[in-house]
Write a structure and sequence with these properties.
heterodimer; A: alpha/beta; 4-stranded parallel β-sheet; 12 helices; 16 strands; B: ABC transporter involved in vitamin B12 uptake, BtuC; 17 helices; 0% strand
């Protein structure tokens, strides 16, 4: 019945409309549904509303690149969340495909799922541009397309991400506060940046610089490029220590385990540090915070996929949704770390610790899924 | 009778090619049977769109492979062409056509340079194109350091849809005219592949240069002794490869309405183009096969990945399944070894 009506809608759409007129979400005024979970990005974020459809829904996740811990954890989280009692009854069919870094294949997969009559498609875009055609098709057939993590340069679709600028601000503010507590209002900071040319790297770095500049203190920020990778970050940190001697604090966008390792290897004193959410980094901070390695850990969570799925279902139910959803930053400071709760001494260093979002009812513990599947493999 | 005999001979001489055609037909038929909206124009359009870039790259790769070489720069040339197109293909219709011509000319010129380096630099194609591929990638990054560009939206819509939408977008005539109905469902990307792929390749392979390429792949010494234009054929082979790669890049840019100097995507396309060439029945040793076979091979590669969207296969197992199926498909070509009468033939 449903497929038939969708098919007839498509036929009608193909025959009756010209290519330039299409349906899609209506722009409405807020507030949207469940604002503690689906927080709008800013005050001028617009709200989108799709016509309510009857569940249960067919949902697909179209991933691009696969092959690092973050992506694997993301896929496992998506599968586990689809089985979660809070949402299981609302999902009739759930599919996950990875297309690799191949833009035509990703666009093709999205279009295929639209053709198959799926109701919502969650995706990590391989490129911030180039989705015009699938957005047009999705709108024509009232399919909810939800890019997350690597989002698109458009305001025509609902998207889910963490605020990278806020992340940079919090990192810098933590370091400023820790240094102030030690009586310093200026000094030399090491900044380990991420992948060059990437918008995430740009936003995080700009926020770090702005926050330090706003204090009016005498800061010298030394930038090195670590590519969010432990090995690269470790090497560039070691080089920076060799050249500059000593830093008063470190701000690392990623590869933080490698950064701390380089400091230990060089005999650099343990100083306040801001970093990502790698398990290895949290292990090191927990072990050495008493020596002065006072750290803050904020992460881009693989659990974002669950928020994107939840947002898709909410949109299909006809709720008004913010066009750009800002997911609360998962923060842990050195005094909050607890083994087995927000880091795991028995799990690998490259594991991403943050996976849960209590305000959204997303309680899929990353370690639980990862360790469970390892048992399956053995 | 003679037609049947000619077909029989062709079948015997091109087992790999006909095997690939049968495999593609079976795979595609089953895919459409399983698809909830199988055998519809919408599904065909989507499949065709997704296949254009890899089909052109596979055709590009075929020609150096027929020489007995490999072109590792095809993915990079495609990316370079896409980045050039993302800057030039917009504005008035005349400007758009100008942009397209410049894009294709740039890719073709890059292929020409590859040929000149291989012939007069006396370098192995695999190593020469590895280097020039990096140069193409560098140029692409220079032209488009960040993904973006504004390719004409109507062009994007018109070329990635059926003929009906193409006619409708540009208001050429009444798209609902009764004489037009039998063709209206045909996807534009399929026509593009036929016109620019088959339309260029088939006449080319019948020329002396085209036949010389096969002769070089079979036995370069014999080709030389026969007085064939070896240098010209090699340069032409790489030039045509550059042309096909830039066709793929131009379509990629129009399809995504943007350009993106994505290094890992370029690498993946180069490797997939080699896989498609082998799947299509072209020998990596050179001299046997053809670009039409590679077109079929590229389509087989694509259809294999379509299945993951229909069947429920664990997402983390999908690369494994794809690899095993690919290995099985390529192994089909090795069955001739079982029938071989003289072991010396193995070294052929």
């Amino acid at each position: 019945m449903k497929t038939k009506s969708v098919a007839s809608l498509v036929m009608a759409g193909m025959l009756a409309t010209t290519s330039l007129t299409f349906a899609g979400p209506e722009v409405v005024s807020g507030p949207g549904a469940d604002p503690t979970c689906f927080a709008p990005w800013s005050a001028d974020t617009k709200y989108l509303q799709w016509p309510a459809q009857e569940g249960p829904y067919r949902i697909a996740v179209v991933n691009g690149f696969v092959g690092n811990t973050w992506r694997i954890q993301m896929i496992k989280t998506a599968k586990a969340y689809a089985e979660d009692p809070s949402i299981k009854d609302k999902i009739a069919e759930f599919k996950v495909v990875s297309t690799g870094t191949d833009a035509p294949a990703q666009l093709g997969a999205i279009e295929d799922f639209i053709n198959q009559g799926f109701d919502a498609i969650v995706t990590i875009a391989v490129s911030p541009d180039g989705f015009d055609r699938v957005i047009r098709l999705a709108d024509r057939e009232n399919v909810v397309l939800v890019p997350f993590d690597n989002v698109l340069d458009t305001d025509a679709v609902m998207q889910v991400n963490e605020d990278q600028t806020a992340m940079g601000n919090q990192w810098a503010q933590f370091l400023i506060d820790e240094l102030a507590a030690a009586g310093k209002s200026g000094g030399k900071i090491l900044e380990v940046r991420g992948l060059a040319g990437n918008s995430v790297d740009r936003d995080r770095s700009a926020a770090i610089h702005d926050t330090f500049a706003a204090t009016g203190g005498d800061w010298e920020i030394v930038e090195v490029v670590g590519n969010w990778d432990d090995g690269t970050a470790q090497k560039v940190t070691a080089d920076a220590i060799a050249v500059h001697g000593q830093f008063d604090a470190v701000a690392a966008q990623g590869g933080t385990t490698g950064v701390v390792q380089a400091m230990i290897d060089a005999g650099h004193p343990m100083v306040p540090i801001a970093g990502e959410s790698e398990n290895g980094y949290r292990k090191l901070v927990a072990a050495r915070s008493a020596d002065g390695l006072k750290g803050i850990s904020i992460g881009q969570s693989p659990g974002l996929v669950a928020i994107a799925m939840k947002a898709a279902v909410s949109a299909l139910e006809g709720n008004a949704m913010p066009q750009l959803i800002s997911v609360p930053l998962p923060v842990a400071t050195y005094d909050q770390l607890e083994d087995g709760l927000n880091f795991w001494s028995d799990l690998p260093d490259n594991f991403f610790t943050v996976n849960e979002f209590p305000p959204c009812g997303v309680n899929i513990s990353g370690p639980a899924i990862m360790s469970q599947s390892e048992a399956d493999v053995n | 009778m003679t037609v049947a005999r000619a077909f029989g001979t062709s079948l015997r001489q091109n087992r790999g090619f006909y095997g690939a055609v049968v495999l593609l037909c079976v795979l595609y038929l089953v895919y459409n049977l399983l698809h909830p909206r199988g055998f519809s124009s919408a599904v065909l359009i989507q499949n065709a769109n997704e296949s254009v870039a890899i089909v052109f790259l596979a055709m590009a790769q075929t020609i150096p492979v027929l020489l007995g070489g490999l072109d590792l720069s095809v993915g990079a040339v495609m990316t370079l062409a896409a980045c050039i197109a993302s800057v030039l293909v917009n504005g008035s219709p005349l400007q758009i056509i100008f942009g397209m011509v410049v894009t294709l000319a740039a890719g073709t010129a890059f292929g020409l340079c590859n040929g000149l380096i291989v012939v007069y630099g006396r370098l192995q194609p695999i190593i020469a194109t590895l280097a020039t591929g990096a140069i193409a990638m560098g140029l692409a990054l220079f032209i488009r350091p960040k993904p973006g560009g504004d390719i004409d939206g109507d062009l994007n819509w018109a070329l990635t849809n059926s003929l009906w939408d193409f006619v409708d977008t540009y208001a050429l005539f009444d798209p609902d005219a009764s004489w037009f109905a039998p063709f209206a469902w045909i996807p534009v990307p399929i026509l593009i592949m036929l016109v620019f792929g088959v339309g260029v390749w088939l006449p080319f392979r019948r020329t002396i240069i085209g036949r010389t390429i096969y002769a070089i792949g079979s036995a370069e010494g014999a080709a030389y002794m026969s007085g064939l234009p070896i240098n010209r054929a090699k340069i032409a082979a790489f030039t045509l490869a550059g042309f096909f790669a830039s066709c793929g890049g131009l379509y990629l840019a129009i399809q995504t309405a943007s350009g993106n100097a994505d290094i890992s995507q370029a690498g993946a396309y180069t490797l997939n183009s080699i896989a498609a060439v082998v799947l299509g029945g072209t020998s990596l040793l050179g001299g046997i096969g053809g670009a039409i076979g590679s077109m079929i091979g590229a389509l087989i590669l694509r259809v294999m990945s379509f299945y993951f969207r229909i069947l429920s296969i664990d997402p983390l197992l999908q690369p494994l399944v794809e690899g095993v199926v690919l290995l099985a498909a390529v192994s089909l070509g090795a069955f001739r070894v079982l029938r071989i009468k003289n072991r010396l033939e193995l070294f052929r």
